[in-house]
C-alpha cells in the first residue's frame, strides 16, 4: 500500500478534475514514462497525487479502467519518485496493451529509491513476454527467482523461457527446483527426464525417479520408467526389484513380465524363463517375446523345449496372414541374442555365432518368400536389406535398401542405414551424403545420424566439419564406442 497521508483537496466538481487530468495527459508526449521531472515539487504535489490515485481506484471499482488509467498517469506525474506507484502504473499500462510504454516505465521504476521485489521483476517480465521479447523476459524472471526461489509461478515461467531459448542445462536445473514444489506432476517430470537424456545425464534422471518413488512407491508408470532406465544404464540389479514389484501389482501385464524376464536373464536368474513364458502366453503375437523365451530355454538348458517352441510358432489364424514376417522376425531376434556382444555391450548369457548366422539365413529366406507376394512391403524390404548386410552380402543389401528409400522417402532410419553403409564402403559418397542429409532433416538431433554425417565428412576430406558433427554426435550419445572410434581415427588424421 502506498504510504501517503490521506488528505482531501477542494478540487471542485469531479468533471473539472477529470478534464484537468485529461489535459495533463494530452500535454505530455509520454507522461506515463517520465520518471523524473524538471519541475520542482511543491508541498501540494504529494496530496494531489494521492487524490488522483484514489480517484483511479474508484474508477476501477466502477469498471471504468480507461478513465482509471488516466488518473493513474496524472497521479504518477505528481509523484514520479514513488516506486510503488510506478509499478502500479506499469501493470495498468501493460494490461491496457500499451506495452512499449510499460517497458520504458518499468526500466525507470528500478532506478527509483527502494528495494526491488520478486513481483516487481515479474511485472516487467510479463510486459516483455507480451512483446515476445524472450531474452529480456528471462532476465527479469531470473532476478525474480533470485529474490524468491519458492515462487512457483515465477520459477515455472522462467523454466519455460529456458526451454524456448534452448538453454537445456538451466532448463533442467529449473525443473529440478520446480518439481518438489508441485508434487512431481507427470508431465513436468517427463520433461525433466527428457532434458537429462539430452544432456547425457542418466544418473540424474535415475535420481529423479528415486525421489518420486519415495513419495509414491506404488506408482506403476514411475516404477517402469525407473526399471527401464536402470537396465539401459547397465544396472540390472536396480531394475530387478522394481520389476518384481510391478509384476506383483499387475501380473497380467505382458510388458512387465517380459521386462522382468529380460532383466532376470541378464542376471542369470532361472525364474526369468517363467516370466518370459508368461509374457508369451499373455501376448502371443509379439515376436520378441517368443525369441527371448526360446533363448532363455537354451540358456538354462531347456534345449528340447526351445526347439519345440521354435517349431510351433503361432499360425496365420493368430497373426492375420503375416506368418513369414513374424517367423522371420523371431529368427532375427534370436540371432541377435546368440551373436557375440559388441564393444560396450553386456556379454550375452549364451553366444553362438554359427547358430546366429543360420537363424539369419532362415529369416532371409522367409523375407524373400514374403516379398514375392508383397514386393512393396517396406517392413519386409528393411528387414531383408539389414539382414543381408549383417550376413556380409552388402551388394544385395544395397540393392534392397535402395528400393526401400525410393519407395519411402520419409524413413530416416532406412535413409541413414543405407547412407552409412555406403560411407563405410567408401562408395557412391555423393548419393550417401544426400541420404544422410535427408535423415538429418527429418531428425536433426539424432546422434547416430550426426555420426554418419561426421564420418561422411571424414571420407570427403573435410576434417573440420567431421570433428564438428562427430562431437555433436558424442554429446547426444556419450561413450558410444562407434563415435569414439571415429573421433580417434579423425585425431590420427589431423
In short:
With 494 residues, the protein is an all-alpha fold.
| Backbone CA Rg | 34 Å
Largest sheet entry = none
Order of helices and strands: HHHHHHHHHHHHHHHHHHHHHHHHHHH
CATH-assigned fold name of the domain at 409-494 = Serine Threonine Protein Phosphatase 5, Tetratricopeptide repeat
Query: How helical, in percent, are the residues?
Result: over 70%
Distance from N terminus to C terminus (CA atoms, Å) equals 68 Å
Oligomer: single chain
Q: At CATH's second level, what is the architecture of the domain at 409-494?
A: Alpha Horseshoe
Number of strands: 0
CATH superfamily of the domain at 409-494: Tetratricopeptide repeat domain
Binned strand content: under 5%
Unreliable runs: 1-40
Structural category: mainly alpha
CATH class of the domain at 409-494: Mainly Alpha
What is the count of helical runs?
Answer: 27
Mean pLDDT, to the nearest integer, reads 87
Backbone shape: elongated
Give an overview of the whole structure.
The protein is mainly α. It has a domain at 409-494: Serine Threonine Protein Phosphatase 5, Tetratricopeptide repeat (Alpha Horseshoe), CATH 1.25.40.10. The chain is 73% helix and 0% strand. The protein is built from 27 helices and no strands. The chain has helices at residues 14-27, 45-61, 65-78, 83-95, 99-109, 118-130, 134-147, 152-164, 168-181, 186-199, 202-215, 220-232, 236-249, 254-266, 272-282, 287-299, 303-311, 316-319, 323-338, 353-373, 378-390, 394-407, 412-425, 429-442, 447-459, 463-476, 481-493. Helix 6 runs antiparallel to helix 7, helix 12 (220-232) packs antiparallel against helix 13 and helix 13 runs antiparallel to helix 14. The longest helix has 21 residues, at 353-373. The chain is elongated.
